[in-house]
Write a structure and sequence with these properties.
The protein is α/β, with parallel strands linked by helices and 507 residues long. The chain is built from 14 helices and 18 strands. It starts with a strand and ends in a 12-residue tail after the last strand.
Length: 507
Amino acid sequence: MNQLVLVLDFGGQYKELIAGVVRSLSVYSEIKAGSISSDEIKQLNPIGIILTGGPNSVYLPDSPKCDSPLFELGIPVLGICYGMQMMCHELGGEVLPGKCGEYGNVLVKPGNIPSKLFGGINKPFDALMSHKDVVNRLPEGFVITASTENCIAACENTAKKLYGVQFHPETKHTAGGKETIRRFLYDICAAAGDYKLDDYIERQIKSIRHRVGKSKVLLALSGGVDSSVCAALLSRAIPNQLSCVFVDHGFMRQNEGDEIEEIFAKRDLQFIRVNAGKRFLAKLKGVTEPEQKRKIIGGEFIRVFEEEAKKLGNISFFAQGTIYPDIVESGGEHGATIKSHHNVGGLPESLSFTDVIEPLSGLFKDEVRMLGKKLGLLSSLVKRQPFPGPGLAIRVMGELTEEKLELVRKADAILREELNRIRRRPSQYFIVLTNTLTVGVKGDDRTYNNVIAIRAVNTDDFMTCEYSPLSHKVLSRISSRITNEVNDVSRVVYDITSKPPATVEWE
């Protein structure tokens, strides 16, 4: 078994990013509820614990708290943002509303007391802050190791192996943040660095074979990165027992259904394509609310798969390419539901399968891509742009019609064609049909047509992102082509919002 670092969740938006950074440093991590008991922690035997940020104020009676005895276990603890405040509050310190909040990059000044967490660094550095409350008084035994103009930025009690930072070292916005976490793992927790994706593959293959036995498995294959990697892993674990069903729900990008069929029909697995566009569109008639769209699509997906399973006969297990961010964004004990993913929030309670297999549910997107390469998938497939399960259904605001879908397909094809011409492409880019009409002019005639939005972002982890600063020359060319080549579009706008506060998708 790999050494384990627990990431205890108190509702922070970066909890999955923390866990991902830990794994990228070759240490296995798991996210658990912040309320986990000290006894459960002892049974898991972690080498370290990280307390995440969160949106609450620790001094309020209903704010989430950890099981305080964990601070007496002798296990190194790193509290981040709310995690630091909670640790100080629980151990007798004082946390109060600050005179002014700190949001965005703030200059942090290390103190004169040497700290393993900073590795001897004594020069000021920029760090991402997002807090209003501050630690006003430290608990007994703690010392200040860094500060800003407005707050205690870091503190520690080396005797008890307790460390806290008010800033977010897990984000790339904090200079040297990843190195700070590395020092916590290796210099403080004495990590061996024994987590490798090769080990994950072998563990999953053994687990799948043990669970499945000689039964057959039906995989929901969308043709995206996640389901494709899932197919490769399952076919290695249980060859000749896997059937892959691709449901073309009618919300794919231009020519995408045919491309997926061409790729997978040649692989060593049973590939079945179901053309169900009219069926899905009928189910969504009159539906405008995005969460309802997702749940309807998710439910209908399952119905189709159940029908295909009956045709195939003797199918016991349903498999899908759910990854960890899908689960995180669909809500947790303290976290808000950002959006329900079709393979999480849309699943009905009763399935006609014995069990559900999700071999990628503990992995982040970058790990899934690396896993795909190790499993021998083509680079073009592994690096494919993320495409949501509900497809264009959540890139058309408001009610869906075939006319709207076709409009988006044409505009999206133009966008992809133009951006494929530039050397440095964004991490993800697509078209959104806004539910807005605007006045325009074509020739000598007044028009009142649709507004198209372009979304292009850069990201390393697909949990946070920044908008891509495309050149005006490129944007102008795209806008000109769309308004000239796509009927019923009179205006093109560019979304320059990062995540957070926005999400990548509009719905």
